[in-house]
């Protein structure tokens, strides 16, 4: 009868056999190439086991990366939206600065056409009363502004200063109901009075005869008769002319050339208060000063011209005595006749003496 459990080698013997076998395999693998095919085949089998054992780790990393990348994408999207909003705001500011630059260039171009002294002012406030058209600018009495001083923008007259403060001024616009300005039609010189209507887009001409030569599209300029606005500044353009046979005067409506409700930068005109005689004297003095400046540089040219002429004339004198006589008119152009008269008289003298000696 066989026992149920056979007794084999002890654990120590088994361990020893395995150790010896391992050492022998390591020596053979290190010294010889017999085990390379076996190792390559075993690596294929072990690769599948590595992939299976590493699968949970890779799944966990994939899920974590998916959630992490989504969070990062959401944060990056929010950041990009914020940056886009900031850039749009900057673009709007840049567009505003571009328009401001264009308006300033127009203002500078208009100031170049003005003969009087001008100064740039900026609109800083408006009158809250809807029945008055007044604005506040950032120039005042300390800047030399005076009452009644004309104010214009890049397109035409806007109004006049009616109130002074140390650093600011109040300007009454042309369209105010209490404001009037003498104008004339630029086409034919017809004079009229343009009055405000309370509408920033409209002026009316008062007491224009029904038979007056005025039509739509005529340019109205300041006539200068009120001794307040200089002559020649554009004021408005005629928009509508209504003739009524039963009325002695025509109804003439005009549109201001200045952008009364849009302009931000204005020009203060300092009129020239000099008399015509003073202007003529100042112009003569300026011309004289300019001539003096030009004269300091020009005398150098005539001073150097006669100097080379003198040495050219001197060697001619000892070479030929007859050539000395025509050299004098070159040095002294005011005496061309005397050498010509004396030359024939002096020529026969040596000739006659020679004949008498013979």
Automatic annotation (TrEMBL):
Parts forming coiled coils: none
Domain Rod shape-determining protein MreC beta-barrel core residue range list: 124-269
Ranges for region Disordered: 278-358
Domain of life: Bacteria
Pfam families: MreC
Keywords: Cell shape
Zinc as UniProt keyword: no
Regions of compositional bias (Low complexity) in chain numbering: 296-358
Annotated GO CC locations: plasma membrane
GO BP: any one term: regulation of cell shape
InterPro entries the UniProt entry points to: Cell/Rod_1, Cell/Rod_MreC_2, MreC, MreC_beta-barrel_core
Protein family (similarity comment): Belongs to the MreC family.
Name recorded for this polypeptide: Cell shape-determining protein MreC
Organism encoding this protein: Pseudomonas proteolytica
Gene: mreC
């Amino acid at each position: 009868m066989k026992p149920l459990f056979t007794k084999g080698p002890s654990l120590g013997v088994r361990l020893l056999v395995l150790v010896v076998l391992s050492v022998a395999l390591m020596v053979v693998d290190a010294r010889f190439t017999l085990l390379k095919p076996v190792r390559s085949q075993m690596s294929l089998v072990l690769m599948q086991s590595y992939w299976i054992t590493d699968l949970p780790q890779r799944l966990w990393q994939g899920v974590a990366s998916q959630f992490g990348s989504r969070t990062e994408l959401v944060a990056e999207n929010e950041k990009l939206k914020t940056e886009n909003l900031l850039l749009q705001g900057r673009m709007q500011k840049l567009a505003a600065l571009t328009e401001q630059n264009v308006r300033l260039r127009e203002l500078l171009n208009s100031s170049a056409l003005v003969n009087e002294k001008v100064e740039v002012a900026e609109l800083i406030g408006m009158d809250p009363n809807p029945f008055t058209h007044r604005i506040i600018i950032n120039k005042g009495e300390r800047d030399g502004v005076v009452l009644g001083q004309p104010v214009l923008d890049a397109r035409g007259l806007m109004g006049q200063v009616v109130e002074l403060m140390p650093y600011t001024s109040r300007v009454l616009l042309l369209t105010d109901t209490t404001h009037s300005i003498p104008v004339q039609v630029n086409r034919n010189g017809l004079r009229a009075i343009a009055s405000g209507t309370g509408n920033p887009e409209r002026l009316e001409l008062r007491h224009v005869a029904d038979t007056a030569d005025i039509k739509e599209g005529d340019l109205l300029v300041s006539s200068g008769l009120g001794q307040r606005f200089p002559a020649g500044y554009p004021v408005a353009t005629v928009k509508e002319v209504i003739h009524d046979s039963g009325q002695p005067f025509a109804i003439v409506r005009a549109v201001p050339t200045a952008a009364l409700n849009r302009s931000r930068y204005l020009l203060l005109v300092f009129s020239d208060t000099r008399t015509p005689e003073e202007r003529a004297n100042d112009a003569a003095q300026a011309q004289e000063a300019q001539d003096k400046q030009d004269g300091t540089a020009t005398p150098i040219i005539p001073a150097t011209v006669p100097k080379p002429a003198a040495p050219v004339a001197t060697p001619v004198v000892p070479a030929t005595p007859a050539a000395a006589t025509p050299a004098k008119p070159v040095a002294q152009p005011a005496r061309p006749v005397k050498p010509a008269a004396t030359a024939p008289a002096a020529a026969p003298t040596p000739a006659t003496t020679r004949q008498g000696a013979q």
